[in-house]
Design goal:
5-stranded antiparallel beta sheet; alpha+beta; elongated; 76 residues
Length: 76
C-alpha cells in the first residue's frame, strides 16, 4: 500500500520545497508539479510533491489521518 501525506510548503529553493505538517518537516521535490508557492498544500509521496491540494481537501484528509492515529491506527 502506498501512502501520500498532505503537507504545507514553508520554503522553496529551486525545485525543492521544505514542507511541514504537525511540526514534522521534510524536503520534497517539486519536479512533478507546477505553480507551487509558499503556503500551498501539496500531496507528498516518496519525496515528491505529486499534486497541489486546495486547503479544504488538505484539512479534511489531515483530520482523517489524525483520527486514525487517535484511534490507535485502526481502521474499521
Amino acid at each position: 500500500m502506498c501512502l501520500a501525506v498532505p503537507m504545507q510548503v514553508k520554503q522553496i529553493d529551486g525545485d525543492t520545497a521544505l514542507c511541514e505538517i504537525d511540526g514534522v518537516t521534510r524536503e520534497a521535490s517539486l519536479m512533478m508539479v507546477e505553480g507551487i508557492a509558499v503556503g500551498d498544500y501539496v500531496l507528498i509521496h516518496a519525496g515528491f510533491a505529486i499534486e497541489k491540494l486546495d486547503v479544504e481537501d488538505a484539512e479534511e484528509t489531515l483530520a482523517l489521518f489524525r483520527q486514525v492515529l487517535a484511534d490507535g491506527g485502526l481502521v474499521e
